[in-house]
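Hi team,

Below is the intake form for NAD(P)-dependent dehydrogenase, short-chain alcohol dehydrogenase family from Pontibacter chinhatensis. Please confirm the fields before the structure is written into the shared record.

FORM ID: S-0412
PROTEIN: NAD(P)-dependent dehydrogenase, short-chain alcohol dehydrogenase family
ORGANISM: Pontibacter chinhatensis
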Amino acid sequence: MKTMANKPTKLPAQEQEQQPGKEHEMTPQPEYIRKGYKGSDKLKGKKALITGGDSGIGRAVAVHFAREGADVAIVYLNEDKDAKDTLKLIEAEGRKGLILSGDIGDEKFCRDAVQRAVKELGGLDILVNNAAEQHEQSDLKDISKDQLQRTFQTNIFSMFYMTKAALEHMKGGSAVVNSTSVTSYRGSDHLMDYASTKGAITAFTRSLSANLAEKKIRVNAVAPGPIWTPLIPASFDAEKVKEFGQNVPLKRPGQPSEVAPAYVFLASEDGSYITGQVIHVNGGEQVGS
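The structure came back. Fields below:
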């Protein structure tokens, strides 16, 4: 694991053949928690469910939550080794962990995953809707019906499915944190369907927050910029990976460890007066609110 001081400003050329991508095959390995991060019981006794929790931002959030005192269930597609590695990291923090494999684009699976998490962890206080997929296409004509449906099914339909199921168990003081993206605000000429789903997630976050305000359930989002996760080598060719993150003011890709504390903040009492908002963790790119 690279330390904060040693994070590379440029990445070696690499790519993976299929999504969501595998963290254990990446070079360098993403940093999931920075050296010296000390938990302070911000989430003590909480029960959390994180989609896409096996790797990347999801893994970082899972480990940060565990270090802050939460028991954590993670949902993933088929990256068994990454999921088992993340489970070990959760348990190493002295917390209970659970891994659940399946397709979040399937509403029944989402219901079943929530029910199992509630049963195994003893409740549900925090839902992190994080899993996503993206497929690069430079021409709108090349975005097939199947790709369009799949991207929306995974990225935004799943949030409706998972949140509907989770709300049956959540109460006042609970929190939902969604992963949107900088592309929601500035668009992306080569990720048009992906950026569209992220725009939908931002609108979903704002709308749901208003809907749940009377129930005292807060709903917020994080909008990462170029973060070094398995989705990157699984989405782009090796030459583009080499230049990943170079076009932001900080001139480097961010690490999952630099994003996860925003999720901790929004899930904890530190964010008790914040709902319907988006935190931008993007290396300095200026975007509209």
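SUMMARY LINE: Strands lie at 47-51, 71-76, 97-101, 126-129, 175-179, 218-224, 278-281.

Thanks, M.
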